[in-house]
Amino acid sequence: MSVNSALRLLAPDRTHRLELRAGPTPRDIRHGLFNALGLPGEPPVRPIEFDNLLKDTLAEEFRILVCDEAQWMKKNSFEYWRHLWDDKRTDIAVIFAGGDGCYKVLRREPMLASRIHVWQEFSRLSHAEVLQTIPVFHPVWATATPALIEAVDKQAAHGSFRNWACITAHVLTGMRKKNLTEVDEPLIHWVYSKIGGM
Fold it and tell me: What percentage of the chain exceeds 90 in pLDDT?
């Protein structure tokens, strides 16, 4: 979410997000790029032709390629990314985003790791950040008491913005179903029954 928000602000017209399956192969990455870049026609069958098409396209203008769940990639996939990035004609930045273990996986590939310019870790919101951020995150929290926000964070959200987004979606559903205009404790307990052990 942090990566997407930043890129929407900084480079909305240059960002291309790849949708890849777990453990993508170079072939999967080629097809993911083909789709993300919106290339016309059918993808080339032969890898050399496919690579030339991608390199020609990636040389046209600067692009940001976002590869999510990077912790599931294997060595040959990272090598393929490096191959594209190292080409003198391509003008790309590749963002590898991932969850647990992503940093370790990327560091294990020294030829790739040496080309990474910024390592950015997103940590949980602190108590003060929760109280400052959540009331402006969504209007539904603007009228909630700080005590209620603190309780939700302690019991379910745990400083995770992803958890807050999920809870907020359930709160909005509950407010519609129960015809409420504000968040209250009974509604929060109803939300807890929907989200289980967050």
Answer: 57
- Of 163, 168, 165, 171, which is closest to residue 197 (Cα–Cα)? 163
Strand ranges across the sheet with 63-67? 15-18, 63-67, 92-96
pTM: 0.62
DSSP 8-state class, residue 126: P
Amino acid residing at 96 = F
Which of 36, 64, 33 minimizes the C-alpha distance to 47?
Answer: 33
DSSP H stretches of helix in the chain? 2-10, 26-36, 47-58, 75-86, 102-107, 110-113, 127-137, 139-142, 146-152, 161-178, 185-195
Pairing mode, if any, of strands 92-96 and 15-18? Answer: unpaired
